[in-house]
Predict the 3D structure of the following.
Amino acid sequence: MSELKPRKDLLDIESLSLEEIEYVLENAVPFKQLFQRSVKKVPTLRGKTVLNLFYEPSTRTSSSFEVAANRMSADVTNFTVSASSIVKGESLLDTIETLQAMRSDYIVIRHKAAGVPGIVAQHTRASVLNAGDGYHAHPTQALLDAMTFREVYPDFAGRKVAIVGDILHSRVARSTSTLFHKLGIEVGVLGPGSLIPEGRHDFMTRFRTWDEVFDWGPDAVYLLRVQMERQEGQFFPSIAEYHKMYGMNSDRLVRMRELGAYLMHPGPVNRGVEVTDEAMGYEKSLISTQVENGIAVRMAVLHWLKPETQKD
Ligand code: CP
């Protein structure tokens, strides 16, 4: 594997250089090859501890980090927020101080408030990995999306990806679009006007209809979940209306097949909202590959980051 100056934390995509992005994506490849072996473990993080701290629900990200850390022979602790002193009113900083005393090497954190992983990073010697904070960032999701897209399109520069759905509330949209843009991939967006932020990313082409998207000729369509839990107020008339206007249905699958476009989704999927059962069985869906690549990318990130605890 190639070498690069290590960094302590991974908090967002914006602060990553192209060299760092390439480093992680390249190093994820041999980790993925490991999954084909009968023994999928390497000793890279033997004796190191990884703490999974999820203040918001997660299936893919939390289990993916756990599998990644286990495959690197780290000791993993899953900290259950609902069963912790946090529900008794303990402050974030007091929790961090407690965790710091445990001398964890890596803290993987998801929180509903943007910026919390950054605060934790400032107050601990452990490496902090942002597993999603509010609307702000989900950097490992973006990296696994880039790895997945590059596997099917080794000539990825100049290719086109349409992101469809709730862009406003999506940390995935923010991180993945930023990373794709850095890699020279064109990004377009489609969704209800109320869920498309004005002026957030000037580099993205704005579409009003699926016809406009398909006429643009996307190489992949990236569907997003409507994040009801983050919406205060009504952003579109009804779920049925949303599905009709923006969901991936039979007619749109016909256009996808004509274009040879791939389908991506970060999960969790809401069938009947952004996607039909039929579309979930689309032969060019990359959704399972995204999950598999998530483990490889997170192994590559854990391999790269260097906690200050390792100076001891
Ligand atoms: N993609 C993603 O973040 O999924 P989870 O919410 O299940 O972790």
User: Anything to note?
Assistant: The longest helix spans residues 287-304. The mean pLDDT is 92. The chain has two domains: 18-137+292-310, 139-286. The radius of gyration is 20 Å.
